[in-house]
Specification:
By secondary structure, this protein is of the alpha+beta class. It has two domains: about 5-20 and about 150-235, no CATH class; about 25-140, no CATH class. It is about 45% helix and about 15% strand. The termini are close together.
Length: about 240
C-alpha cells in the first residue's frame, strides 16, 4: 500500500502541501569578545550574552570536530572539566538537555541556577589558566539549497539516507527554533497532509537529538521511516 492509498478515505486529509525543499547548512562561528577565566566571570557573562551564543555552545559541537571528552555534551560542561577541573560542576552541566526547555532564555536560567548553586557550595572560585579561558562564540547559520524537491512522505523516507548530516541538523534540530510550534521540518511538512501521517509525526517527537551524533540521528530517522511504511504495507 502506497502513501497515497494511506490517505484515501481520510476525511481530514488536506491537499498535498508544496514539495519539501531539501536544504543543507554550515555554522559560521562569530567571536563575541566576551571570555571567562573563572566561574564567576562565566556566570556574569552568561547573564548578558546573546542567546545565540548559548545555542552555539550547546548545539554547535554537532557540526564541528570535537576533541574533548564526549561525555560532556556542551561547551560549558567541557570547560568546567578541562578548564576549571571541576568534575562535579561538569557533570551537573553535562546532563542539561536543551530540548527540555521551551526557549533559550529558560535554558540560560538553568545554566545560571546550576552555576550559582556551585558557587554557593565552593569556598574558593575555580580559575582556569590564561590559555584556557572560555570564549563565548555566536554562530551564524549559512543555508544552501540543494535544489532537491520531495513530493510525498514515502519519497522523503527514501531520501533521508542520502542526506548529509548537516542537512539533518538543519531540518531536524535548527528547525525547532525556526518553526512556530518548535517542530522539526519533517514533522511540520507532514502536518500539511492533515492527519494522514499523524502517527509518524508523533514518532518523530519521541526522538531526542541531543545526546547522539548526527550520524546516529540520521540512522534513527531512517529506521523510523522504514518501519512506518513497512507496517503500512503489511496492514494493507
Amino acid at each position: 500500500m502506497t502513501d497515497n492509498n494511506n490517505s484515501t478515505n481520510n476525511n481530514s486529509a488536506k491537499p498535498a502541501p508544496v514539495p519539501f525543499a531539501v536544504k543543507d547548512c554550515a555554522l559560521a562561528a562569530v567571536a563575541t569578545g566576551l571570555r571567562a577565566q573563572n566561574l564567576r566571570e562565566l556566570r556574569d557573562n552568561l547573564q548578558r550574552i546573546h542567546s545565540g551564543s548559548i545555542y552555539y555552545h550547546f548545539w554547535g559541537g554537532l557540526l564541528r570536530p570535537r576533541f574533548d571528552d564526549p561525555e560532556f555534551n556542551n561547551d560549558f560542561a567541557g570547560w568546567a572539566r578541562h578548564g576549571l577541573h571541576d568534575t562535579s560542576l561538569a557533570e551537573r552541566l553535562s546532563v542539561i538537555d536543551p530540548t527540555d526547555y521551551t526557549d533559550l532564555e529558560s535554558l540560560r536560567q538553568e545554566l545560571l541556577d546550576v552555576i550559582e548553586e556551585r558557587l554557593d557550595e565552593s569556598e574558593w572560585i575555580p580559575w582556569a589558566r590564561s590559555d584556557q579561558q572560555f570564549h563565548f562564540i555566536r554562530s551564524q547559520i549559512v543555508v544552501f539549497d540543494t535544489h532537491k524537491r520531495i513530493s510525498s512522505p514515502h519519497e522523503l523516507a527514501q531520501a533521508i539516507p542520502g542526506m548529509s548530516v548537516s542537512s539533518i541538523y538543519y531540518h531536524f534540530i535548527d528547525a525547532r527554533r525556526r518553526t512556530e510550534d518548535s517542530l522539526d521540518d519533517f514533522e511540520a511538512w507532514l502536518d500539511g497532509f492533515g492527519s494522514s501521517y499523524s502517527d509518524l509525526s508523533k514518532k518523530l517527537k519521541t526522538i531526542d537529538p541531543y545526546f547522539i551524533s548526527l550520524s546516529e540521528l540520521r540512522q534513527q530517522l531512517i529506521t523510523l521511516f522504514k518501519n512506518y511504511f513497512k507496517n503500512i504495507k503489511e496492514e494493507a
